[in-house]
Amino acid sequence: MVLNYQIGQLYNRRRDIHARFGGQMQGGISTPAEHPIVFAFTGSSGAKHGYADEWTADGTFHYFGEGQEGDMKLTGGNKAIAEHAVNGKDLLLFETIGKGQVRYRGAFNCAGYSFEPGNDRLGKTRQAIVFNLVPLEGDNAEPVIELVLKTPTTIEELRRKALAAAGPARQTVRGEASRSYYARSEAVRAYVLARARGICESCDRTAPFTTRAGIPYLEPHHIRRLTDGGPDDPRYMGAICPNCHREIHHGSDGAAINARLQEHVTAKEKISLD
Question: Which of 135, 165, 198 is at the close of a domain?
Fold first, then answer.
């Protein structure tokens, strides 16, 4: 399945999103049952319900969760956003323009969330859930890894750190979410790349070249998701060569190659667990 959404492009919410993937056609968070996607919608109209979504100086998007009256709960769509990565689902953000039109703002990862005081649609004080969303496009989408371990360590220690970094988004203090996010992401990538030992985990060929730092070049790939970037469970990630990476995302046999990669990673992780 290919998303084919272009950042900045306008789409019809009913025709271009829900007719393709399903999910709730009303509200700010939509969770299609049959596809690994969570849709989040933002817009100025949310202000009357007590929402105040905004970009921050570090490029993080503060997104208010769902719930118009009373304290917001980490259930339903809010839970889906917090757990999108661990559940192998992509998080796509759209801006509501009006008359059924939405503008695609890109794929994001939830870096964490906080509970903050605010007003609900009745003007009553409540605790709102504010998600810190980090965009995946650009350097975060397919990072050029030149990871040099500053301190020698074992593969077992790297795996321990990677598993600790995986899991649902955590409750964080506003301003600290992005730092935690990048630290978690680095821990997972470090282990996945070390596990591969310079050999593509898809085609079993040696990495096509070494980086300027002298490290075999492989790219972390999220097996269950359509986009790559951010922390994930290393048992559902592979370190693969650029050719296999492109073929999985764009080739006619991509789904089958991706399935074989998961089998290979599962076998390696089983060995490491035994």
Answer: 135
